[in-house]
Write the C-alpha cells for this entry.
Amino acid sequence: MCLAIPGKIESVSGDDPLTRMGKINFGGILKEACLAYVPEARVGDYVIVHVGFALSRLDEDEAQKVFEYLKQIEELGELEERSAGVPPAQSG
Amino acid sequence: MKFLDEYRDGELAQKIAREVHRVTTRPWNIMEVCGGQTHAIVKFGIDELLPKQITLIHGPGCPVCVTPLEIIDKALDIAARPNVIFTSFGDMLRVPGSATDLLSVKAGGGDVRMVYSPLDAVRLAEQNPAKEVVFFGVGFETTAPATAMAVYQAAHKQLKNFSLLTSHVLVPPAMEALLSSPNCKVQGFLAAGHVCTVMGFEEYFPVAAKYHVPIVVTGFEPLDILQGVLMVVQQLESGRAEVENQYARSVRREGNQPAQKLIREVFRVIPRKWRGVGEIPQSGLGLNETYAAFDAEKKFGVTEYHVDEPAECLSGLVLQGQIKPHECPAFGTKCTPEHPLGATMVSSEGACAAYYRYRRQPAPAQK
C-alpha cells in the first residue's frame, strides 16, 4: 500500500504551487504526478511517487552512502583477515 | 532503473548479510513495521540470509489489512446504492466485508471503479455532476497527503457531489500499542520509510527512549532492509536504543512539511479501530469540522455500524507478531487468496498472502 517508486521528472506544467504537475519517467513509462509537495523539485530530479503524488526529492549524495558503507566493511574485513594471518585465497 | 536496481544487487546483499552474521551474538526479535517491507523480505528471501538468531516479526503495517470490517461494510452499503460512483485503490476491492466484497457489488451492478490516485476521483466528480462520487480513503501517513489534497481541491472547486469514506491510520500509535502489550516480543524496529518520508522521525525519539528499543527508519529494497537490520542489530548488541535513518535518500528528519501542513488542514487525529487489533487511541485521521460536508459516512447515514470479526481468522495475532501466518489452522486450507477469511490474506502486502505466495510448504516428497 505504501508502495512508492522513484522516477525522473521530464517536464513540469502549471504555476500554482498547489496544482503543479510533472511528467515522471519510470524506466521508460511516463506518468503524471502532482508536485505540490516537492516545491524544490526541478526537471531532471528524481522523486519518490506514491498514488500520483511526489513525496520527496531523492538525495543523490545520501543515495551513495550505502555503497560507501559497503566498501568500508569490505576493507575492514580484508584488514581483519590480514591481521589474523589468514593467507590470501589461492586460485585453482 | 536508477535508485532501484542498484539496491537489488545480490552480491552486495550477501556482503551485508555476512556482516549481520559477524555482529550477531544473541537471539533478537526485530519487527518490520511496513507491509511493503514484509513483501520484499519474503519475496527476496531476505530472512533466509540472516543468522538463525534473528527473527523478523511482520508488523501491522498494511492499511488494507487493518481496515476494520465495519468500514468495509459501510463501503459496501454505499457502493451498492444507485447514483453512486464508488472509487477505491485496487487493493481494497477484494477485501471481504461481513457478507461480500466490492468486486461482487460491482458484479451485481454497482458502479465501483478502481482509481490510481485520489485526484482521479475528484476528476470523476467534475465529469459526473449528477452522480455522487465517493473515494475510499485508506492508508497510512504515506497516503494521507494525497487524500488530503483530493478533499482540499474538491472544496476549492466547490464540488458538492464528492465525498470521502475515510479509514486513515497512523503508525507510531500502533507501535506504542504493540510495545505496551504484555506479550510484546519486539526488541527493535525497522520503521516504515515512506511513512517517515511524509512525517519525518521526530516522533520516534520519545518511543525509543521510553521503551528502550532501537528504531531504524528503513527503505524497501533488499539492500535497504538488510542494512536496516544490521543497524538495529548493532544497536541491540551494544545496548543502544536510538533512532537512526537508513533511508536518508528519501527521509529528512522533519519529513515533508508542505504535506504535513495539508494533512493538518484537512484532518484531525481521532481514535481508530484496527482490524484484528482493536481500538487504538489517537491512531487515525478523520475530517476536520471545516470539511465535514465531504464526510461520506454522514452524507449516506452510515455512521452506526458495528460488526464482530470472524473468530476463526487469527489475523489479529499475525498482525501483532504473536504467530506466523502458517501457524494459523485455516492458513492455506479454509483461507486462501481466492477465498480469504481475513484481510492479511487479501492484500499482497498482508503477511498471510506473502507467505502463501512465496512460502508454501513444499508438498511431501513422493516415495
About this structure: Residues 65 and 89 of chain A are 29 Å apart (CA to CA). The mean pLDDT of chain A is 86. Chain A touches chain B at residues 1-6, 8, 18-19, 26-27, 34, 36-39, 46, 48, 50-53, 55-56, 58-60, 62-63, 65-67, 69-70, 73-74, 77 (CB under 8 Å). Residues 60-83 of chain A form the longest helix (24 residues).
